């Protein structure tokens, strides 16, 4: 028998792992997908952003569901739905069908991420919570970066469709372990779902993302581009207005008045926008410009994976002991310097000289950053709001990545080349460093850690 605490951690890691893995594993398959289904850069962006769009728009509703109906129940539904939509992605006969399946898959992922992390924050407290968040962060962060490795092997040796079909295995294992966890059906009295908020958020994000992706093909002067953009901006503004007045908001704006929560989410914007855009472009660049196979491009991310695996729990523990501020300030700057080093990856590219050392630096920066960032944000709010707090932070991260990837075409230009790649690396580094500066200026060490211990 597995002890309950260990089972909670394993379930939380596996449930989030499949969601994060699927968000990244597809990146290395994008050239193969567009070669078979057509669509060029626009389809590649939509395959990534379709998933992030529904995930970012609905993750807040999912956080409320987690707090209302229980983490275990919501996780079970999300896992089954994720398995079904993964199979739909695997058999998609054309590009639009794949994008639709990815949209539905992102909805399922929205149920998994906040519930899995809330399961940890509601089970553990204090230093143990920080340590478990560190372990969760390390493994789920690894999923985001090891995805291209696994995807590359599948694309080169078998077929890109198996990138999606592979999800069935970890989902089955997680459902089996989840059967041994029990909790009350509701963790608080049921509250009405914020349907208006969910609708406005989806419309706002969808309109803006559609415009940002399609403007590269149609231009900003096209009404097909600027009308959805205007509608998106207005809808998102209305979303913020509604959330400030709704009786049961899916994103309680009062949470942002808690200093570490608000500042931590602002830092999250920079860090996760940089992370999503950076690895998206690097993976495609190594294949389409560098001439590497999908497997080689995927393996280029292994050093970052190793750094996260070895160090994320350590820095999560240190943040629990000394406070997150220093780590959240230093880590993004280190990662930003790593992305700047990648500007030297000019054909003919030597992976061991031009790419691997820079990825090691990026991985070190992420290992220093991610667990303390998560701990700072979620450790600042009451335990009964763990689900919605986790959902808000994850929504901020996914939306930041969503917008960043949608902007890829604007930064790169008509086609990905060396100059476009270098521009992206500068932008990514700037976003990372900005996240570090925001953390240094705004994050505060919790009073319990800042106070010196009294001698007994």
TrEMBL record:
It comes from the Bacteria. It is a multi-pass membrane protein. One of its GO terms (molecular function) is transmembrane transporter activity. The chain crosses the membrane at residues 41-62, 74-94, 100-121, 133-154, 160-181, 193-213, 219-242, 263-286, 292-315, 327-346, 358-383, 395-416, 422-443. Pfam families: MFS_1. The keyword Transmembrane helix applies. It is found in: Cell membrane. The keyword Translocase does not apply. InterPro entries: MFS (IPR011701), MFS_dom (IPR020846), MFS_trans_sf (IPR036259). GO terms for cellular component: plasma membrane. This is MFS transporter. It comes from Cryobacterium cryoconiti.
